[in-house]
Amino acid sequence: MKYINIDKKNWANGLEKLYGNYRLFGPVKNNKHHVFKELGKGELPDLHYLNTLLSPKSIIFPQSETMFEYSLDESKKDHHILKEIYKDYSPRALIGIRPCDAASFLLVKRNFDTPEYKDTYWLRAYEATIFIGLVCSSPCSTCFCTSTGCGPFHEDGLDLLLVDEGENFIAKILTPRGETFIKSAGWETEADPIASEKTIKNMKIKAEEKIASFVSTDQLKNKSTLKLYDAPFWDDIAFACINCGTCTYGCPTCWCFDIQDEVSKISGIRMRNWDSCMYPLFTLHGTGYNPRNTKVQRVRQRFMHKLKYYVDKYNDGIQCVGCGRCIRLCPVNIDIRRVCDIMNNYED
Amino acid sequence: MSDYTAKIKEISARLLKEEKVEMVIGFRKGTIPMMNEPCFVKTPEDVKKLVWDSNCGINLANYLTDRKEKIGIIAKGCDSRNIVTHIIENKIKREQLFIIGVPCKGMIDKNKITSMFENEINEVLEDEENIIVKGEGFEKTLNKSDVLQENCKICIHKNPVIYDELAADLLDEQKDIDRYEDIRKIGAMATEDKWKYFEDLLSPCIRCYACRNACPLCYCPTCFVDESRPQWVGKSTDPVDTRTFHFLRAYHCAGRCTDCGACERACPMGIKVRLFTKKLEKDCLELYGWEAGLSLDERPPLDTYMPDDPDDFIK
To answer: Less crowded by CB within 10 Å, the N or C end of chain B?
Structure first.
């Protein structure tokens, strides 16, 4: 494994060089919160943050994304024909994402990239992106990443991992793409691999010790789906829920969307927008029938999907990376850690 | 606040034991600082989980809509006014309710307190006048009055307007409060500046509808933004659609809003959504001398007609 030492004095300069080769995205403080956005020329990512308010999923999977456009003007030869619109899939770099968020992209890839279906919009954006992670030395009290198969120094889904040492970053190169990236920035000072590995290992242990939140997930797979579905605790869990979509919109692993046509005069677009299982409209049939007509059903769906159906379908843990955003953002304090423990410990 | 909690538990346990109600709706202690979770309790043993402190800003009237049980509900001033509005609008019957009134000392502003500290807040404690904020390597005592929710700072109905039993003695209400300074300031802006102000205000909106869903007034079976036949409003993040949602929602609350602040508290993006509803609240006060939810005996101004209406258009 190769390690590069980036003196922070050369940080801005390196990003400047990268600017022509990549579209750069990073966390910036916007009024009160940190958010991921595309960086302008000379704009630096602010890497002093706990985590961003919303996840960076929108960089690959925008909340609203136009797919096609069409004309309704019948005097035109190509009227009523859907045409793909141009999109910029030139190389982009997501700088300073947390390991939990990086892991989330691999998780949602399961949905967008299957042998049967390839979601071309998500995949092209994903493939155009290189992921530059930033280790998490001060996890939040709501972080439970180590319970989800992830962790503050987790490397899956990353091309490069940055470790902040104060005056400099140690950059651990994880993929050839990461290596290309670091070369284009002109950061060439190699760090001693043994010393670097040791530093990182020590910091990792310290960071993991700071994780104060844990959930138990070991029994979920063995539970009967129907018994969990019919369990008596859902009324209590769902009571406070106001059925807003905050948890799903903030979540890096929620992938649902809705397709809409919007027509203005003689032209139209077909777009997709994030959707949420919290909304009644999500399941409303054309007939007017709604199979998930009550709040309790919708709340149950969200947790059953993340903590049971997904577990059973992919046999690789829960559909959650433990970033804790839904806990921090929920207006009524519904806490997935509590729900997960209730489900995991449920004895019918 | 522990005396409030003790009294709430005592009343709730009694109501459940005597089977006067089937459930009591209140708050249980949150899992993170400055948050409590609305909950119900159905047995006298269960009342131990009920709490009352400065983190009970969610409006519990929202949890009464169309319920059929006999319910005990814990109601601060604004909740009680929304209960009145719910009764007037036939969303619950007075006879179904046993209202445990809580004279409210104000709720603290989670966003404001969070933004005052660089590091994460791990614990927030309180006494009568102070809020003690703790995190890794810091501890700070704040004056509670400095960190109240904006609507609580200017509240003139701390005491419940309707109740069956009180959890504490009634409080003195604030007098001579200027409730509308911010609204006048926006009103005085030039048109373009005002528009720019609204654009900036709403730009972080993610259309999650937490504001609407936290609001006890927003109980329509299908909200206009969710109508699909016809579809009135686009579903994307187009600012036109976002504005349409917020402006129309505010108008739907005209003459009904009690400025409980649940919408603003619920917003994950920290948008000051109350500014819209407050403007209409101000209009209702100035045009009709009306404050929502104060009496069961009066119809709200926008659902009554009087033959001597001074406006000609209606004749």
So the answer is: C
